[in-house]
Amino acid sequence: MPERRVTVASKVGLHARPAALVAKAAAAQSVQITIRKSDTEPVQAGSILGLMTLGAGHGDEVVLAAEGDGADAALDQLAELVGSDLDG
Predict the structure, then answer these.
(1) Residues ≥6 apart with Cβ < 8 Å to 6
(2) For a pLDDT cut of 90, what percent of the chain falls above it?
(3) Catalytic residue among 15, 25, 64, 82
């Protein structure tokens, strides 16, 4: 299963606006994407509630994973988003 490790760039972490943007982008993919911190169980990246309960803060490393046709492209897109400052 392809994975991407990425550092959360948003100063507020994956909460509020950044969580909504990531969830929307993940839900739009043709594959199901999960996200986890190294010490947690994966949650659905397309779920705002899942992202917020993950508790990923600024500077935390998260692991994105997906399986199926288009998984690599979907993970690349989502990793770029998570690694961007989405606070604006």
Answers:
(1) 61, 62, 64, 79, 82, 83
(2) 93
(3) 15
CA distance 73 to 86: 20
For 42, the token pair is 């994966």
Q: 21 pLDDT exceeds 90?
A: yes
Distance from C-alpha of 69 to C-alpha of 88, rounded to nearest angstrom: 32
DSSP-derived letter for residue 35 is E
Q: What is the pLDDT of residues 46-68, one digit of tens each?
A: 999 999 999 999 999 999 999 99
Catalytic-residue membership of 15 = yes
Instruction: State both tokens at 16.
Output: 């509020």
